Amino acid sequence: MAATLRSKTVCTECGSTNLLRDYDSGELVCEKCGFVLSTTLIDQGPEWRAFDQEQRDKLPRVGAPVTWTIHDKGLSTTIGWQDRDASGRRLSPEERARLYRLRKWQRRSKVSDSTQRNLAHALSEMSKIAYKLNLPRNVIETSSMIYRRAIQKQLIRGRTIQSVAVASIYMACRQCNVIRTLEDVAVAANITKKEAARNYRFLLRELQPEVPQVDPHGYISKIVNKLALTGETEMLAMGILKKASSMRLTSGRGPSGIAAACIYISSQLTDERRTQGEIAKEAQVTEVTIRNRYKELAQKLDFTVSL
């Protein structure tokens, strides 16, 4: 084999290794003596032409990337529904019947067992929930990996697909630092918050993933957008939260309650007044929580707000 390769890369007339591949004429020519070694070169490049980088990016030679959001990771083949051959001619009745049977068994083989059927249904439900919540792609991929781990450890038995899917999505949101409350995810899946919390604690105990603490800064941006407040109020709320964090006033406090109290204080200082009830509704906390957090911040940070 090595001798064959060597004979192909060395000129047979002068023994030179300086060979020129002319793809315009399809010839392999020796640069030293000009002998033509081959006239049937095969172009290994793409079958299309591109004149800039943008065109090259739009014309890739590869298929779709591997994704965890499909039960077979997007690597399966699909038999087309048209009963025609490669030239566009209609197939004979015998060939159409054979293609129908192949198409049917190919569809059945995708989900051959109960685990694959459960995974296919769960990933479809998770995609619907993610679409309702407008979640980014990385959250969907992460939640799909969490659900696959739960199936591998046989944690799905005795639990509904929707409840485990909600727990997986909420855990993925926490890991990807995307601000979504457990109640938001539960409402999108039409289940109760209590059921979602119970399954989330179960996955947290069994899978033992690394779930970071929720950053209250994300809640501030979310609540400010819902209340249609200005950037000045948001920046002031961020400054109050940063000062409170440096004084360790946020330890042991819920991030949504702290964020709501900071927004309430900043809205009063910038004269964009919002009631505690309006802020509590958007932050999904009680008015009592906002008042308690406000009193703690006002006492420690030493400022006054005219009510």
Q: What name does the CATH topology of the largest domain carry?
A: Cyclin A, domain 1
Identify the overall geometry.
elongated
The strands making up the biggest β-sheet line up spatially as: 1-2-3
Rounded to the nearest angstrom, the radius of gyration is 31 Å
CATH architecture of the largest domain: Orthogonal Bundle
Helix content: 55-70%
Query: How many separate helices?
Result: 13
The name of the CATH superfamily of the largest domain reads Cyclin-like
CATH class of the largest domain: Mainly Alpha
User: How many individual domains?
Assistant: 3
Pairing-aware structural class of the strands and helices?
mainly alpha
Mean pLDDT: 84
Strand residue percentage:
under 5%
The number of E-state strands comes to 3
Distance between the termini: 89 Å
> H/E element string?
HEEEHHHHHHHHHHHH
Major sheet characteristics: 3 strands, antiparallel
Structural summary, described in words:
With 307 residues, this protein is mainly alpha-helical. It folds into 3 domains: 2-38, N-terminal domain of TfIIb (Single Sheet), CATH 2.20.25; 114-207, Cyclin-like (Cyclin A, domain 1, Orthogonal Bundle); 216-301, Cyclin-like (Cyclin A, domain 1, Orthogonal Bundle). Helix content is 55%, strand content 4%. The chain is built from 13 helices and 3 strands; from the N terminus they run αβββαααααααααααα. The chain has helices spanning 2-8, 53-58, 93-110, 114-133, 137-152, 161-175, 182-188, 193-207, 216-227, 231-246, 255-269, 276-283, 287-301; strands at residues 19-22, 27-30, 36-38. The chain has a 3-stranded antiparallel beta sheet, with no helix packed on it. A hairpin with a 5-residue loop joins strand 2 (27-30) and strand 3. Helix 4 crosses helix 6, helix 9 (216-227) packs across helix 11 (255-269) and helix 12 crosses helix 13. The longest helix has 20 residues, at 114-133. The protein is elongated, with a radius of gyration of 31 Å.
